[in-house]
């Protein structure tokens, strides 16, 4: 999830544009959702006026001015939320940009526009993490990262991000054997990953991670570009298992770097081509429904 510098000026403009669009959407939503004042016409009494029945402005208590709320924004209170303001400042003042392209980011953004605020789980912590948190403003965005030193480095710069250290005991060169393991019956059983008998299920996350029903899951880690790297085999399988094990509804799962062999094969096998709705560049989007409400439902459609 850590990025190389790619056209910093163009990407910076793209990110600022996304935040500006999000800000406008929040304001527009608030305008439609805020209550309108009720009109209070003066009742007529058969054309007769009775001063004893009429109240003057002085007789009525005047409401005090409401304090400016932080959420949601209203037409009379359009202050930029602190998280969005911090994100704008961060990306304006840095030359380090996210790894995903505008078109790839837009795939996830369209889903976030419909679902946020929501629960968003991201495998990986990087220079785009503040962007994801801000685009899910008001929701919960959690990052799972393999590199403890990298977590500390990011926390110094962006202390508001929620991130956890996780470990992986696999290597990319083991992918073929793990694929064969994943085809076994024990890996087709839908359950909480903590209790799964499948070798691919990750069991070392903080307990709270397993208890949340995640609306979006982004797999952009762990490292997977060389044979001794952990690879994303377990992360992809576990993301699919968590999606299927939710009580109801669907989970949008995204996998980045599908131009690589592991990400390509494992996303098709365990997130299922039948659940894939879109591929943009190196990003695939899957919509996986719960399997808990349908006994006997096949692992892949």
From TrEMBL:
Coiled coil: none annotated. The keyword Transmembrane applies. The keyword Transmembrane helix applies. Signal peptide: none annotated. InterPro entries: IRX15/GXM/AGM (IPR006514). Pfam families: IRX15_IRX15L_GXM (PF21729). It is a single-pass membrane protein. Residues 35-68 are annotated as: Disordered. GO terms for cellular component: Golgi membrane. Keywords: Membrane, Transmembrane, Transmembrane helix. GO terms for biological process: xylan biosynthetic process. It is found in: Golgi apparatus membrane. PANTHER family: OS11G0490100 PROTEIN. This is Uncharacterized protein.
């Amino acid at each position: 999830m850590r990025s190389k510098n790619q056209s910093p000026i163009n990407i910076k403009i793209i990110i600022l544009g996304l935040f500006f669009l999000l800000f406008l959407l929040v304001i527009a939503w608030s305008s439609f959702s805020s209550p309108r004042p009720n009109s209070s016409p003066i009742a007529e009494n058969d054309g007769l006026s009775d001063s004893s029945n009429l109240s003057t402005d002085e007789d009525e208590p005047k409401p005090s001015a409401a304090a400016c709320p932080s959420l949601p924004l209203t037409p009379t209170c359009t202050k930029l939320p602190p998280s969005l303001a911090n994100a704008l400042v961060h990306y304006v003042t840095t030359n380090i940009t996210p790894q995903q392209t505008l078109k790839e980011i837009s795939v996830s953004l369209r889903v976030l526009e419909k679902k946020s605020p929501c629960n968003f789980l991201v495998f990986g912590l990087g220079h785009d993490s503040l962007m994801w948190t801000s685009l899910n403003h008001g929701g919960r965005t959690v990052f799972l990262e393999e590199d403890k030193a990298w977590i500390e480095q990011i926390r110094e710069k962006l202390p508001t991000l929620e991130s956890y250290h996780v470990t992986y005991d696999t290597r990319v060169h083991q992918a073929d054997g793990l694929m064969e393991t994943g085809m076994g019956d024990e890996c087709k059983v839908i359950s909480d990953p903590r209790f799964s008998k499948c070798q691919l299920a990750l069991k070392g996350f903080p307990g709270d991670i397993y208890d949340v029903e995640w609306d979006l899951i982004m797999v952009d880690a762990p490292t997977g570009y060389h044979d001794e790297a952990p690879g994303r085999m377990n992360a992809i399988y576990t993301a699919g298992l968590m999606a299927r094990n939710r009580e109801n509804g669907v989970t949008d799962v995204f996998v980045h770097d599908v131009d690589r062999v592991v990400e390509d094969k494992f996303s098709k096998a365990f997130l299922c081509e039948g659940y894939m709705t879109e591929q943009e560049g190196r990003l695939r989007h899957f919509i996986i429904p719960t399997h808990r409400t349908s006994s006997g439902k096949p692992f892949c459609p």
